[in-house]
Structures are given as C-alpha cells and as structure tokens.
Design a protein that fits this description.
It contains 26 helices and 27 strands. By secondary structure, it is α/β, with parallel strands linked by helices. The protein folds into 4 domains: 60 residues, Phosphorylase Kinase, domain 1 (2-Layer Sandwich), CATH 3.30.200; 251 residues, Rossmann fold (3-Layer(aba) Sandwich), CATH 3.40.50.740; 209 residues, 3-Layer(aba) Sandwich (Dimethylsulfoxide Reductase, domain 2), CATH 3.40.228; 115 residues, Barwin-like endoglucanases (Beta Barrel). Helix 10 packs parallel to helix 15. InterPro entries: Asp_de-COase-like_dom_sf, MoPterin_dinucl-bd_dom, Mopterin_OxRdtase, Mopterin_OxRdtase_4Fe-4S_dom, Mopterin_OxRdtase_prok_CS, Prok_Mopterin_Oxidored, YoaE_C.
Length: 680
C-alpha cells in the first residue's frame, strides 16, 4: 500500500505511537531512506505542530545501535543478558514446538500473553495478537495497569468515556487540573488552557506534588494522597449550602440530587479539611470559585486513581460539573478520557468468538508477580510485547522472581533488549510504528489517524501483526482471520453501526484526510449510556455491584506501619520505561530523586542531595533526597521508571503494592507506604 516507503527522500505524514493522550500529528523527514527529523504536523487541528522533546528525539531511538536487529536465543542464565542471534524460522519453530508440547501436557491456559500500549496502534496493541491468543485458548490478561479504576468510576456517573471536546476548553474561564501532571503528560491541554488564560481563565491544580504543572498554576492546592473524593464531596456540600447548585440542570439531566444533597452534609469543611489537609478557608474559596465561574472545566488525571480508592475518587469528581450545570456550557464539563467517541468494532478486530472456552482464566496484569509464583496450574509460558513488566509492574521483586523461574518459557517481542527481555528464552525484534500500517485513536481529542509505513523494517524486525500471522501458521491455525491484511482489519474496525460518532469514517476517508474527527455532537442535551440515560449521582448499578450508591469517601487501607505515603509517578523525559535507556533523556532527568518535605527531612537528619534508603516489606531503593516544600509532610514523591542498571537500586516498583483498586482491578501504585533513612 504505502508508496512512502519506496521514496528515499521527502516529508511524510505520521502519528505519535506513544501512550500519551495528545496523539500528535507528525511529519517525518526522510533523507536517503532514513528518518532524519521528526517534526510536529502544523496541520493537526489540536496538536498544531508542537511536539514534546521525547519524540523530537525519536530518530535517535529508531536508529539506536542498541536496537534489536535479529531474533535471539538465550545462552546464559536468566537475566544475564547473554544471547545469540538465530533466524526467524528457528525462532518461530522453537516457540511453536514448545507451545504444542505445553498445550499437550498442561493445556492452553499454561500460556499467557502479557502486553500493554507501548505502541498505541490498534492493530499493534489489540489486533492480530488477540485473534491469535483467542484461537490458541491462552489465559487472558486483564489490562488494568493504567486507567481502568478511574474509567469504571467515571462510567458509573457518566455512562462511558465521554467528556467534552478539548478544543472547546479555550472558552473555559476556570480550568482545574486534578491529579494530572499535564505539562508533562498532556501538553496540548496546557496549551489550550494557556489560550483560555489569555482570555481571563484561572488555572487551578490539585495535586500531591508541586511539579511542573503545579508551578504553572494560578492556584496550587496541595492535597493528601487518596483523599480527593472527600474534597469533591466537601465541595458539593458547600455548593448546595451556598445555593450555588444548578437545580434546574440537576432536575433535567441527573438522578439522585436530593439524596446527594442530604448525603454530603456529613462532609462539612472541618471534616474535609482534616481528611485532605486543605485548610477550611481554601475549601470555601474553591467552592465559591467553582460555583460562580463559568464555563469551568476539570481535567481528571490518572494519578489520583492509582490508589485503592481511585475508582470512587473519579466517580465522585465526575459528579461535580453536574452540580453546577456546566455540561451545557461550551468549554464547561470535564474530561477523564474520551475514548468512547472513537470506539471501533473490537469484536471484528479481536475476534473473541475464536475463544472456545468462555471460562478461560483471566489474570490481572498488576498481579503478575504472584501469578507467576503462585498460580496453580502454573503459567508455563509468557509472551510479552508492547510492555516491560520487569520495570513497570508493582511488587517488582516478585515479578523478578517469577521471571527467573527456570520452568517458565518466556518470549519477548520488543525494539530493545529490555529488562524483561533479559529473562527471555527467545527475543524477537519489533519494527517501530513508522515501519507499519496501523490506525490510531486518541483518548483525549477526537481525531483518528492512519499510519502508513514510511521506512523499511529495521534489520530483520517485524511488526506485531506479522509475528502473530507467522505464529498462527506455525501452530497450524488455518482460519481465514489470520489471512486478513492490515488494511482489511482497518476496514473491519470502522464498520461499526453501534457507534454513530464514527459512521462517516472508513479506510478511504482515513487515507484521503490526514486527521479525521469523530462526529462532534455535544453530550447534552442528550441521552447518556447510563442505565437511566442521565448523569447518575445516585447509582443503582453501583449498589448492585456492591458499592455505595452515592459517592463516598473511603480512606486508604493500612500498608504496614511506615510513616510515609510513597507516590512514584512518571517523569517528563521518559514515557513510562521507554527512553530510560537513552543517554540524552537520562541526562535531561539527571538522577532519580526522592522529593521530601523539609520538616520531615530535618527530623530524619537528611540534607539536600544526600542519598537515602527507602524500604518496606516488599523491597528497597537508594535515591537522592530533594528537600523542599513541593510535597506535604508525610508524603514523598519520585518521578520516572528508571532503568535497572547494575550498581543501582532505583527500581521504584519493588516498593509498590499489587493490591487492586476498588474498581476494575486497577493499579494502586501510589497507595504504598515506606520508611526512609539516611545512608551513613
Ligand atoms: N512525559 C510523560 N508523559 C506521559 C507518560 C510518561 O511516563 N511521561 N505516561 C503516559 C501514561 S501511560 C499515562 S497513564 C499518563 C499519566 O499522566 P497523568 O494523568 O498526569 O498521571 P500521573 O503522572 O501518573 O499522575 C498525575 C499527578 O497525580 C498526582 N497524584 C498522585 N496521587 C494523587 C492523589 O491522591 N490526588 C491527587 N490530586 N493527585 C495525585 C501526582 O503527583 C501527579 O502529579 O501520562 C502519559 N504521558
Ligand atoms: N511506579 C509506577 N509504575 C507504573 C506507572 C507509574 O506511574 N508509577 N504507570 C503505569 C502505567 S499508567 C502504565 S500505562 C504502564 C506502562 O508500562 P509499559 O506498557 O511497559 O510501557 P513502557 O515502559 O513504555 O514499555 C513499552 C514497551 O513496548 C515496546 N514497544 C514499543 N512499540 C512496540 C511495538 O510496536 N511492538 C512491540 N512488540 N513492542 C513495542 C517499547 O520498546 C517498550 O519496551 O506502567 C505502569 N507502571
Ligand atoms: S508523546 Fe505525547 S506530546 Fe509527545 S509527541 Fe507523542 S503524543 Fe505528542
Ligand atoms: Mo498509563
């Protein structure tokens, strides 16, 4: 299909493949067959030619000398990183014969795919791979590591991943970044907010860490981790009390506001101040601001839902715009995620019907460590792609121990020899997204975009769909579904009458127009996909599912008797663990730091820049202390999923719990506790 690939020189359209809401339009500059420059596409209606440093530096990643060029077979012990090159035939043949034996002796569920969104392309992340593992009957992976708790919580209130069009937020007069480090993780929402600010908008940031986003705020409100639902409930109480609630809107478009109004009386300012650490006066001021300034927009982040109570936190915050009737105002409302607008035909793409045994076991990806160590019957083979669990999954020491099992046959498909790949029996080289055909749908803005290959595959690398086509053949799967081309799968994806927002989109429109927007019908007035069709302040469905029907603050559970809550988030110059192996990105981040309040540091006799040991029953890390006022006392923060290098102890996930959140089996990365001591 692509003619771009054959042209040695030119500028070609592309899309950023990384797991980032912005999903920027890109232009790839190609000289003598190689990408020499990555630029933002100025014609993209939302991202407008601006891209982050990470992706500007993408050519260095694509042509990194460390990039894999051939399949490899392990020669040393697990984790040694010793491998020798083999051919694709040998690699596929050894995987297929191992799997055939395993299926005969232990059954199909002994095999587990482990993947996430290292490449956001739909075909790369949830296409031919799903068909293959469904047909195989492998154990199923519950992909819970990122945003599921909050998505489930939001859905109880709003019916699905539907918020406002971010392009409308230039009209907002009050913008609240709530649990999102948007400067690093959603830079174009910040650009839109800055535009709104030029027209008089105020930017409020509610976070546990005064990071790049907090610094930019007109008003930064520090909050104790895991207490956001108490704040939201306290605001609701004040809004009702002060007569700032829009009763007409509530009557027309929501259910349960009378019950809610009674229920929130218990969240009086003094109670809420004690829970959240936010002074009473600030609570009152925030309620007055939210109750009087319109349009107001809340950007709900992922950070606040990486907690045991994260689903309920998002469920609760999602009620706020209804209280003030903001959904009817252009630029008013909220965004948690907008993936609902571009929802495609997943059944056609992934073919769950191929899975014969509908009871096939499901494994929560957050608990991969215990699953590898404890599950009976055991997981005997794991196929990892688009993901680096040795670094990104919680209970990291358990994960390592699991990966070290001699009787676990591991295959890793990646562009690099990641920490996870160092435990593999077979490593397969992956193409970059610029070498593939795929399509992308943003989970923040409303545009979808096709990627056609711009360069030849690097070395012998292959795309995810092609690897699964080869494996299907080697396993003897004759089904036609494995013969579909990438383009045919894109056609199938957009044939989806159930989603009227995409009724005008098909392969042809994608090829003819660089960026295609989901139909932009506003949410209100309209019927939401909740059981009642309205915003559910009171949710019968929640009650049926075992939750309180009204939004409720549930404190974080105990986690040992360690004094500090530990919030290890992502950083500015890596994307999760991606780029943590690149010198330029490492230099920009310098070294992993532990942000600690000066009062706490003084008590522990720690000076700025000193190395500290942090630990709990799960593990320990050695990090550099950064002392100041950008976290509250009792809270410590690190940023970045750093590489596991010899001589370092900087793998923060050895400290994080693998408990699952209140909803959707979500991750609780930010609800762990630790102790700190100065290294003598
Ligand atoms: N540069 C960069 N961009 C990225 C990524 C990256 O690694 N680097 N990762 C991508 C991915 S996969 C995702 S999911 C998104 C994540 O991006 P975000 O949605 O921004 O989520 P986080 O950065 O995890 O956390 C956001 C903020 O929540 C704060 N926080 C933690 N706990 C609480 C709490 O209890 N209450 C409140 N109010 N705040 C809290 C943290 O201090 C942090 O500033 O970013 C994407 N974009
Ligand atoms: N402590 C802590 N842990 C966290 C988080 C946190 O905030 N704090 N964030 C969590 C979140 S929100 C997320 S989403 C996860 C993300 O965790 P991961 O999904 O593991 O993300 P990355 O670390 O970016 O790893 C993606 C891998 O996919 C590979 N890859 C890229 N493109 C392709 C391709 O086309 N084919 C194949 N086969 N491989 C490809 C990349 O080279 C990279 O090694 O991490 C989670 N872990
Ligand atoms: S990582 Fe995000 S901001 Fe950077 S280029 Fe990709 S989509 Fe744009
Ligand atoms: Mo994520």
């Amino acid at each position: 299909m692509s003619t771009f690939k054959k042209q040695q020189n030119g500028i070609f359209p592309s899309v950023c493949p990384l797991d980032c809401p912005d999903q920027c339009g890109l232009l790839l500059h190609k000289t003598d067959g190689k990408i020499t420059k990555v630029q933002g596409d100025p014609n993209h209606p939302v991202t407008k030619g601006n891209i982050c440093n990470k992706v500007r530096n993408m050519p260095e990643r694509i042509y990194d000398s460390k990039r894999l060029t051939t399949p490899l077979k392990r020669t040393g012990h697990k984790g040694s990183g010793q491998f020798e090159p083999i051919t694709w035939d040998e690699a596929i043949e050894s995987i297929a014969s191992k799997w055939k034996n395993l299926i005969a002796s232990e059954g199909t569920e002994s095999i587990l795919p482990y993947s996430f969104y290292g490449n956001m392309g739909i075909l790369s992340a949830e296409g031919m791979d799903r068909r293959f593992f469904h047909r195989l009957g492998a154990s199923r992976l519950d992909q819970t590591i990122c945003s599921v708790a909050g998505s489930v919580g939001y859905k109880y209130t709003m019916g699905g991943s539907f918020g406002i069009d971010p392009e409308d937020t230039i009209h907002s007069k009050l913008i609240i970044f709530w649990g999102i480090n948007a400067v690093s993780t959603n830079m174009h929402q910040v650009a839109l907010a800055q535009k709104a600010r030029k027209n008089g908008a105020k930017i409020v940031v509610i976070d546990v860490h005064k990071n790049r986003t907090g610094i930019l705020a007109d008003w930064f409100i520090p909050i104790l981790p895991g207490t956001d639902s108490a704040l939201a409930l306290g605001l609701m109480n004040l809004l009702f009390e002060e007569g700032l609630a829009d009763l007409e809107f509530l009557q027309e478009y929501s259910i349960g506001y009378q019950e809610l109004r009674e229920h929130v009386k218990q969240y009086d300012p003094h109670t809420v101040a004690a829970i959240t650490g936010i002074p009473v006066d600030d609570l009152k001021e925030l309620a007055a601001l939210y109750g009087t300034v319109s349009p107001s927009f809340i950007r709900i982040g992922n950070g606040l839902q990486h907690h045991d109570n994260g689903g309920m936190a998002v469920r609760t915050i999602a009620c706020l715009p209804a209280i003030t009737g903001q959904w009817l105002v252009k630029g008013g409302g909220a965004i948690k995620g907008n993936s609902g607008y571009l929802a495609h035909n997943t059944a056609a793409v992934q073919r769950p019907d191929l899975l014969e045994n509908k009871e096939t076991r499901v494994i929560n990806m957050n608990q991969i460590g215990s699953a590898l160590l404890d599950l009976k019957p055991p997981i005997s083979s794991m196929f990892v792609y688009n993901c680096n669990p040795a670094v990104v999954a919680p209970e990291g020491n358990k994960v390592r121990k699991g990966l070290e099992r001699e009787d676990l046959f591991i295959v890793v498909h990646d562009l690099f020899l990641t920490e996870t790949a160092s435990y593999a029996d077979i490593v397969l080289p992956a193409t970059s997204s610029f070498e593939n055909t795929d399509f992308y749908t943003s989970y923040w803005h409303k545009y979808t975009q096709i990627q056609e290959p711009v360069i030849e595959p690097y070395g012998e690398s292959k795309s995810n769909p092609d690897v699964f086509r080869l494996l299907a053949e080697a396993m003897g799967f004759q089904d036609d579904v494995f013969k579909d081309s990438d383009e045919e799968m894109i056609e199938q994806a957009f044939h989806y009458p159930a989603n009227s927002y995409i009724e005008d989109i098909d392969l042809q429109t994608l090829k003819e127009n660089q960026f295609v927007k989901a139909k932009n019908t506003p949410l209100f007035p309209g019927k939401l996909p909740t059981p009642s069709g309205k915003i559910e302040l009171y949710s019968k469905k929640m009650e049926e599912d075992g939750y309180p029907a009204l939004p409720t603050y549930v404190p974080l559970p105990a986690d040992g008797d360690h004094p500090f809550l530990f919030v290890p988030g992502p950083n500015h110059n890596f994307l999760n663990s991606t780029f943590s192996n690149n010198d330029k990105h490492i230099q920009l981040e310098k070294t992993p730091q532990l942000h600690i309040n000066s009062r706490d540091a003084a008590e522990l006799n720690i000076e700025n820049g000193e190395m500290v040991r942090i630990w709990n029953k799960r593990g320990e890390c050695l990090l550099q202390a950064s002392i100041g006022e950008n976290v509250l006392s009792g809270v410590v923060v690190t940023q970045g999923l750093w590489a596991d290098l010899p001589g370092t102890k900087q793998l923060v996930n050895v400290l994080t719990p693998d408990r699952v959140a209140d909803m959707g089996g979500g991750a609780t990365f930010f609800s762990g506790r630790i102790s700190i001591e100065k290294i003598q």
